[in-house]
Amino acid sequence: MPSIDEIMGHAQQSFLTYKQASAASKATFLEAIAAQIEAIKEQLIPLASSESNLPEGRITGEIGRTLGQIRLFAKLVAEGSWVEATIDPADPNRAPLPKPDIRRMLRPLGPIIVFGASNFPLAFSTAGGDTVSALAAGCPVVYKAHPAHPKTSQMVAEAIQKAAELSGMPQYVFQHVEGGIKEGQELAAHPLAKAIAFTGSFGGGKALFDTANARKNPIPVFAEMGSVNPIFAFEGKLAANLDALAAAYVGSLTLGVGQFCTNPGLIFVPEALADRFAAAVGEKMQAVAQAPMLHKGIAKTYYAALRRLSDNGNLTWVTVSNTEDLILGSPAFARVAASDWIKNGDFQEEVFGPFGIMVTYRNVAQLHEAVAALHGQLTCTIWADEAEIASEIALLNLIEEKCGRMLFKGAPTGVEVGYAMQHGGPYPSTTDSRSTSVGVYAIKRFARPVAFQDMPARLLPVELQDGNPLHIWRTVDGNWQK
Question: Please, what is the Cα angle at 421 between 418 and 423, to 5 degrees?
Answer without folding.
Answer: 125
